[in-house]
Amino acid sequence: MPADTKDNTYSEMYNVKNTALQKFISRENDYTDEGKPLWVEYRQFSSRSSDEIATYGDFVFNTFNMVVSLEEDMMVFNAIASDLTQQQSDQFIQLLNKEHGTAEKSEGEFMDSFEVYTWALKDRVLKYVPLYDNEESTLVVMKEKENNTLQAGEKHPHYRELFYIIQAKYAEQVIGQFHTGDLLYCQ
Predict the structure, then answer these.
(1) Number of helices (H) and strands (E), helices first, in the chain?
(2) Residue 105: CB partners within 8 Å, gap ≥ 6?
(3) Model confidence over 118-161: pLDDT tens digits?
(4) DSSP tag of 48
(5) Which of 181, 180, 185 is nearest to 163 (CA)?
(6) CA-to-CA distance for 18 and 14, rounded, in angstroms?
(7) CA 28 – CA 67 distance, rounded (Å)
(8) The pTM is what?
């Protein structure tokens, strides 16, 4: 990351486009500090659905993560859009199919199974994972100002869109090798 983006207060934080990225060195064993370093992950620390951090066509993404080699070569760019409808998700697939040919569809798994759409291009691999969140385990609480009381709010089932751009030369090395965060859906 450029030196001028380094946070002045926190050692492993960077500020990019009004958002904070946290640096993680991924190792052979992600759960300890032991083992050979594999690559560096920059994960967005927090976001709101109203943020606009990246775009693809008319589609807006509000969160992003990056993976770079130990030599700082870009390996993976991951953009996330939250709060999408089924129609918007389908439109994104149609756009990618129109631009890059029909996707290969497969199934990934983490806790539940999910669909993975893959476009293998000459210089990069594109992956798209639409995750449906029915908000079954979400607690929505609303504060009623008049009575100063809390009540159950309405749930809003939606899709989270995870889009990955992977440099082709790193595809075999990284696809299916992430173990945490939004990157673990890159399967």
Answers:
(1) 2, 13
(2) 115, 116, 117, 118
(3) 999 999 999 999 998 776 777 778 888 888 888 777 777 778 89
(4) -
(5) 185
(6) 10
(7) 15
(8) 0.81
